[in-house]
């Protein structure tokens, strides 16, 4: 693959059937391409299909394409239904001409199809919608012009150079993964809509010259034994370490939010993280409730946090510095890290900080689980059952509770430990575990001695080495 290209495609129709347009917003590493066109008499579904077809045809055949559409019809049609349509020879299928063309256009290409909620403030989708309407407007003008093609307007392409030093959140998604098998009741893996189509979120990584001001030096991380500065805010609960440990910090983290749209509308209402060093929980944790200054809405059914409860809690800007100082420099471990990091990045930037992903590395346990258990359910609840992690009451999803559960799951996934913290065992239990480990490796191994010829050859080689280099050989007796 020479490059990865992101496409946002959309269709529009004024009357169904009626005047229609299609748009494709194509984002490469160096340019943005805006494609649009239309037809005087068409349907919305046909314009959705045309947007995908024209967008794909525009891209090089050896590029990997990531396509976002707000049409369930297009996404499910090309990834699921089309196989049945072919088997029944396209009988009773609407728009077979365009489906066949889309299928032929996709052949030999690597394409990832994703659904995105339309008219929800996503910049890429909004741009595709604008282009589709521009295609309809141009078609209308062409109809008024006798010299124009009476049936279809030509495709218009507008190329725009991207700034070389500017990261594009629409294109860069270092923590993003296909979340189609997510558990629809768990916001750790992003809720699906009523049509069971998952919305994929991307991480915005800001480029800043002041990032070094926030990064904890590696030497300090390795030698640190103290918990980051304690909170002076009454609504921030920071528990200090109960053990003396040395090594890089890992923070198992979870958030609760008012919804899924981190860009403009939804906000964080709870953050919980627990600290681990060298696979041992240190006893340190941070827990904060936050006033989002907006109703929590239906999300209360998931986390159980009400508007009344959050009314006297601090806004994010009030707690941002303490939270940032606690998290910075650590490895963040989260289940569907994309979701949590999108919200944290956006909230910190609103408060005047750099994105958290600038100063922390990130490990996504959902991606780990999907790689380890392909084709299986990998929600947090499913992993708890699979690894026989001690059950806890999850009637509601709390950030600190989920972080505690995830710490057990992470240790089980990465080390297969049954006892997650040896320091919690009694002295006799630790001695029994040590004896069991020693007994398990006591194997009578055969001893193979060298022959006389092999010993002579070894001595000869050592002498040659010492004569050549003038130093004693390490292998000499």
Automatic annotation (TrEMBL):
It catalyses: DNA(n) + a 2'-deoxyribonucleoside 5'-triphosphate = DNA(n+1) + diphosphate; Endonucleolytic cleavage to 5'-phosphomonoester. The keyword Transmembrane helix does not apply. Mg(2+) 1 binds at residues 10, 48, 70. Keywords: Cytoplasm, DNA replication, DNA-directed DNA polymerase, Endonuclease, Exonuclease, Hydrolase, Magnesium, Manganese, Metal-binding, Nuclease, Nucleotidyltransferase, Transferase. Signal peptide: none annotated. Its EC number is 3.1.26.4. It is an enzyme of class 3 (hydrolase). It comes from the Bacteria. A divalent metal cation binds at residues 254, 256, 402. The active site is at residue 397. Gene3D superfamilies: Ribonuclease H-like superfamily/Ribonuclease H. Substrate binds at residues 254, 256, 303, 402. Residues 1-137 form the RNase H type-1 domain. GO terms for cellular component: cytosol. SMART domains: EXOIII. It holds the Pfam family RNase_H. PANTHER family: DNA POLYMERASE III SUBUNIT EPSILON. Belongs to the RNase H family. HAMAP family: RNase_H. Monomer. This is Ribonuclease H. The lineage of its organism: Bacteria, Pseudomonadati, Pseudomonadota, Gammaproteobacteria, Moraxellales. The gene is rnhA.
């Amino acid at each position: 693959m020479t490059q990865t290209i992101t496409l946002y495609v959309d269709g529009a129709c004024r009357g169904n059937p009626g005047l229609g347009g299609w748009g494709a917003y194509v984002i490469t590493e160096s340019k943005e391409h805006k494609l649009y066109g239309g037809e005087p008499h068409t349907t919305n579904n046909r314009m959705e299909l045309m947007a995908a077809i024209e967008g794909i045809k525009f891209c090089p055949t050896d590029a990997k394409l990531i396509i976002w559409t707000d049409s369930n019809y297009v996404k499910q049609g090309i990834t699921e239904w089309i196989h049945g349509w072919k088997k029944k020879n396209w009988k009773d299928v609407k728009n077979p001409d365009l489906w066949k063309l889309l299928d032929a256009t996709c052949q030999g290409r690597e394409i990832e199809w994703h659904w995105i909620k339309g008219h929800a403030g996503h910049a890429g989708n909004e741009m595709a919608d604008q282009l589709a309407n521009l295609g309809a407007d141009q078609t209308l003008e062409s109809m008024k012009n006798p010299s124009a093609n009476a049936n279809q307007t030509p495709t218009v392409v507008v190329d725009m150079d991207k700034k070389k030093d500017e990261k594009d959140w629409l294109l860069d998604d270092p923590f993003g993964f296909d979340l189609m098998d997510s558990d629809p009741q768990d916001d750790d893996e992003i809720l699906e809509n009523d049509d069971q189509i998952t919305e994929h979120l991307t991480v915005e990584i800001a480029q800043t010259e002041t990032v070094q001001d926030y990064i904890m030096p590696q030497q300090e991380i390795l030698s640190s034994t103290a918990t980051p500065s304690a909170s002076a805010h009454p609504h921030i609960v920071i528990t200090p370490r109960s053990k003396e440990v040395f090594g890089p910090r890992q923070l198992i983290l979870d958030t609760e939010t008012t919804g899924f749209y981190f860009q403009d509308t939804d906000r964080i209402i709870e953050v919980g993280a627990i600290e681990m060093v060298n696979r041992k929980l240190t006893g340190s944790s941070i827990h904060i409730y936050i006033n989002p200054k907006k109703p929590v809405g239906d999300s209360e059914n998931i986390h159980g946090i009400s508007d009344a409860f959050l009314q006297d809690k601090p806004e994010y800007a009030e707690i941002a510095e303490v939270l940032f100082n606690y998290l910075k420099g650590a490895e963040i471990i989260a289940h569907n890290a994309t979701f949590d990091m999108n919200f944290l990045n956006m909230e910190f930037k609103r408060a005047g900080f750099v994105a958290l992903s600038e100063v922390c590395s990130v490990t996504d346990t959902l991606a780990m689980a999907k790689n380890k258990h392909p084709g299986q359910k990998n929600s947090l609840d499913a992993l708890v059952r699979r690894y026989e992690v001690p059950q806890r009451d999850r009637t509601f999803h709390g950030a600190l509770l989920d972080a505690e559960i995830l710490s057990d799951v992470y240790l089980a996934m990465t080390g297969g430990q049954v006892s997650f913290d040896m320091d919690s065992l009694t002295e006799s239990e630790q001695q029994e575990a040590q004896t069991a480990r020693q007994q398990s490796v006591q194997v009578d191994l055969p001893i193979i001695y060298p022959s006389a010829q092999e010993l002579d050859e070894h001595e000869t080689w050592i002498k040659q080495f010492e004569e050549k280099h003038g130093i004693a050989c390490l292998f000499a007796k």
